[in-house]
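If your schedule permits, I should be very grateful for your opinion on a structural question. The matter concerns a single protein, recorded as an amino acid sequence and a row of C-alpha cells. Could you please explain, in whatever detail you think fit, how the C-alpha cells follow from the sequence? I set the record out below, with my sincere thanks for your time.

——
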Amino acid sequence: MAPEVSPSQATNATEPPCRNARMQPTKYDHGWRRVVRNFTPSWFSVTMGTGIVSLLLHNLPYNGTWLYWISVVIFALNVLLFITGSIISILRYTLYPEIFLAMIKHPVQSMFIGTFPMGLATIINMFCLVCVPAWGEWARYFAWGLWIFDAVVSVMTALSLPFILMANGGETHLSSMTAVWLLPIVSCIVAASSGAIVAEVLPNPQHALWTVIISYVLWGIGLPLALMVMVIYLQRLVLHKLPPKAVIVSVFLPLGPLGQGGYGAMKLGQRAQEIFPKTHTLQEASGPTFYTLGFLVALIMWSFGLVWLFFAIASIAHNKKFPFNIGWWGFTFPLGVFATSTCQMGSELPSNFFDILGTV
C-alpha cells in the first residue's frame, strides 16, 4: 500500500529535473529561484486561514470597534499574502512549465489548487463588508467581477481535479487517501456562500437574482460531492486507521464543507427571501420557504459537523504530539467556517447559546 504523503513531502515530486543529484548545485538551488521553484499551491492555505480569521473578527457576535480594525488589518495582510503568492506562482509556472504538468498529476499537490479560489473568496467577502461601504458604486461591481472569476475557477477545479485523479494511469490505494481530496470540491461551496454576500451589495435585483441562482448551483455541485468523499474518508479511517502524525491535522478538513455549506444555505436563504419577491421569482411564499429550508439544512449539517469535530479532537488527543508543518493551517479554516456557521445560527435564533459557542 502507498503511504500517505504530507504537503511538504510532496514538493519534491513537482521539482523539474534541473540537475543530477551528484552534480554541483546550480543557480536554481539558491536565492529567489529556489523559493519560486519550491512554492507549491499548498501555500494558499495560508490565505484561507488568514482570510477566515479576518471574517470571524469582523462578524463576531460580541464585537467592538477595536476588533473591527484588527479585522481590517488582517484583511490587508491577507490581500498582500494572496498577491505575493499569485506572483510567485505565475513566475513558477512561467520559468518552469514542466512543473505544472507534474503538479497536476500529483495526487496530493494537485488537490491544493482548490486553496486558490477559497483564499480569493475570503478576500471577496471582506471586500464586500469593508470596502464596498467605503468606496461606493464601482466597488460593488468590482466585487461581482471577482466573484464571477472565483466561481469559474472553483467549478473548473472541482470538476477537473477529481477526473484527473480518476484518469491518472497509476493505481490509487485507499490507504493513501487523505482529507485533502475535499479541497478542490469545497471551493464550490465557499464560492456559493460568497455569492450570497456579493448579492447583498448588488444594487440591481436582477443581477442579485442571477448571483443567488448560480450560487445555489455551485452549492449543489460541491456539497453532495463532498459528502461522498467524506464517506470514502470514513471508510479509509476505519480500515487503515488514523493518518500519520505528519498529516494528522487533515482530520479537521471535513468540518469545512459542513460548516461552510450550512453557512451558505442560511445566507442564500436570506437573499432568496429578499430578492424573490422583488423579481417576481416563483411564488410569493418561495422566498420564506428557501429561508426556512436553508436554516433546517444548516442545523442538520452543523449537527453532523459535531461528529467530525469529535473525531478530529479525539484523533489529535490520541496522537498527543505531532510535527509542526504547513499542514497546521488545516486547523484554521475548517474550525473558522464551523464557527461562522455557529455564529450565523445565533443571529437567526432568539438564543444566546450559538452566539456564545461561536465566540468561544
In short: The radius of gyration is 21 Å. Residues 205-240 form the longest helix (36 residues).
